[in-house]
Each structure stands twice: as C-alpha cells, then as structure tokens.
C-alpha cells in the first residue's frame, strides 16, 4: 500500500488541487470523481470544489496519509455532506 502523503488545497476557478503520489489504486479512486482533471505539466489532479467534495475525497482515501490545507476546512460541515454534482 502506498504511504506517500496525499495533499489537498484550494485551486482556481472553484476547484481543489489534489496531489497524489502515483499508484494504480489511487488513480482508479480519483477517476471515480465526476469533473476531475489531470494537469499533466503540473502533475496534479483537480476536482470541483463543490459541497461535499472534501468529505468525498477523505472517504475515498480513508486510511491513507492525507494533508488538507486549512483553507479547505472553512467549508461548513453541512455543505460537506452532499456528494459531487453528476
């Protein structure tokens, strides 16, 4: 199982940046998220910063080492319970 740290932070245009050290399992997980994009040159994924997005990401990577930028914690918990938009 990969042990390198997954990092999540705010990006531009209502998106979150997710830096994931490569493993086939992690890539398969992030690909389950609607609206995700791979930024080839920068080597990170971005996902819509929708209500519930942070909670969904933390659930996907449960049990793995994750660092969440404190600015993402500003999203009210009531909004984090909703899933990504389809």
Shape: globular
Average predicted local confidence, pLDDT: 84
Structural class: alpha+beta
Please write the string of helix (H) and strand (E) elements. EEHEEHEH
How many domains would you count in the coordinates?
1
List keywords for this structure.
single chain; 86 residues; alpha+beta; 5-stranded mixed beta sheet; 3 helices; 22% helix; 24% strand; globular; disordered C terminus
Overview of the molecule:
Residues 75-86 have low confidence and may be disordered. This protein has one domain (6-76). A hairpin with a 4-residue loop joins β1 (6-10) and β2 (15-19). The longest helix is centred in the middle third of the chain and has 8 residues, at 53-60. It is built from three helices and five strands, in the order ββαββαβα. Helix content is 22%, strand content 24%. The chain is of the alpha+beta class and 86 residues long. It has a five-stranded mixed beta sheet, with no helix packed on it.
Quick summary of this structure?
This protein has helices at residues 24-30, 53-60, 77-80; strands spanning 6-10, 15-19, 37-39, 44-48, 66-68. It has 86 residues and is an alpha+beta fold.
Topology overview:
Elements: E1 6-10, E2 15-19, H1 24-30, E3 37-39, E4 44-48, H2 53-60, E5 66-68, H3 77-80
Parallel strand pairs: 1-5
Antiparallel strand pairs: 1-2, 2-4, 3-4
